[in-house]
């Protein structure tokens, strides 16, 4: 959980966008936020006035912890996530544009699923290594190969990183990479992969001369275990599910390395060597 991930202008922009709710939907949101004792459900008070009350509460108590269906997060984050659900893939209204700009300044982006639906708040990634483009490409390649298991773990890792749950992010990244190599092995050698009892055995299959997917001459895989893939898994294995042992910088580093690695091998699978 991040303590204060959003600036005051972003919080205000989020609350202003929520004014688009009907009375019923706004009251339901108030229940989710646990603010029913402070913001009444009566229709005598307009949604605009209720938003004014909500805005003052959020600005003053943005770091208050809140239990949600997506886990524990701050009240500020919960309100922003509620507002994000009202965003469109091609925003045009001033309030939509204002929230988008605020999120960008705070280091966040909003991604959309198929047909511009299902907006999702995500941590922005550094431009200098083109991580946003890498993330998009990895997602598209995973979908094209129908690698649904690694796709799910990657989404959970990014979601955990976005809410500042570093240990959960680390754990999901390792599981993502493991399931990715499993699916690659099943894709290139389905019968042989089915006979391999463990994920490490399936990775070794990818380095077999008859397969040649992992390059021995580039130290991607070696018999002595001193290679890039094994080294990466050893690094990802540490601090995976132990709260408090990881921090933002190291978790972000792992996310970057895993995304670049996944793109490299997915491209190889897609285009060939």
Mean pLDDT: 88
Compute the separation of the termini in Å. Answer: 41 Å
Structural class assignment: mainly alpha
Going across the biggest sheet, name each strand in turn.
Answer: 1-2
Task: Count all strands and give the number.
Answer: 4
As a percent range, the share of strand residues is 5-15%
Q: What is the CA-atom radius of gyration, in angstroms?
A: 22 Å
> How would you characterize the largest beta sheet?
2 strands, antiparallel
- Total helix count? 12
Query: How would you describe the shape?
Result: elongated
Give the SSE order as H and E letters.
HHHEEHHEEHHHHHHH
Low-pLDDT segments, ≥5 res? 240-246
Helical percentage: 55-70%
Task: Outline the structure in words.
The protein is mainly alpha-helical and about 270 residues long. It has helices at about 10-15, 25-30, 45-60, 75-85, 95-105, 130-145, 150-160, 165-190, 190-195, 200-205, 230-235, 250-270, and strands at about 65-70, 70-75, 110, 120-125. α1 packs across α4 and α1 packs antiparallel against α5 (about 95-105). Helices cover about 60% and strands about 5% of the residues. It has a two-stranded antiparallel sheet. A two-stranded antiparallel sheet has the order 3-4.
What is the topology?
Blueprint: H1 8-17, H2 23-32, H3 47-60, E1 65-68, E2 71-74, H4 75-84, H5 94-105, E3 108-111, E4 120-123, H6 131-144, H7 148-162, H8 166-188, H9 190-195, H10 199-207, H11 228-237, H12 248-271
Antiparallel strand pairs: 1-2, 3-4
Helix pairs in contact: 1-3, 1-4, 1-5, 6-12, 7-8, 8-10, 8-12
């Amino acid at each position: 959980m991040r303590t204060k991930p959003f600036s005051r202008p972003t919080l205000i922009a989020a609350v202003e966008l929520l004014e688009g709710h009907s009375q019923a939907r706004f009251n339901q949101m108030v229940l989710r936020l646990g603010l029913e004792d402070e913001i009444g459900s009566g229709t005598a008070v307009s949604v605009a006035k209720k938003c004014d009350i909500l805005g003052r509460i959020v600005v003053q108590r943005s770091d208050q912890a809140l239990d949600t269906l997506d886990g524990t997060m701050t009240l500020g984050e919960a309100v922003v996530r509620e507002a994000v659900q009202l965003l469109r893939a091609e925003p045009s209204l001033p309030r939509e544009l204002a929230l988008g700009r605020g999120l960008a300044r705070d280091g966040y982006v909003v991604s959309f699923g198929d047909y511009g639906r299902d907006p999702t708040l995500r941590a922005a990634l550094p431009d200098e290594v083109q991580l946003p483009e890498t993330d998009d490409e990895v997602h598209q390649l995973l979908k094209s190969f129908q690698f649904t298991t690694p796709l799910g773990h990657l989404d959970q890792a990014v979601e955990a990183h976005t809410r500042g749950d570093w240990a959960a992010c680390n754990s999901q990244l390792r599981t993502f990479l493991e399931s990715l190599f499993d699916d690659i092995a099943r894709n290139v050698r389905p019968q042989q992969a089915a006979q391999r009892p463990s994920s490490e055995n399936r990775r070794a299959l990818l380095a077999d001369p008859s397969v040649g997917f992992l390059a021995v001459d580039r130290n991607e895989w070696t018999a002595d275990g001193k290679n890039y893939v094994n080294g990466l898994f050893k690094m990802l294995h540490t601090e995976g599910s132990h709260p408090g042992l990881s921090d933002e910088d190291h978790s972000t580093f792992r996310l970057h390395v895993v995304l670049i690695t996944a793109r490299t091998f997915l491209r190889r699978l897609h285009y060939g060597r």
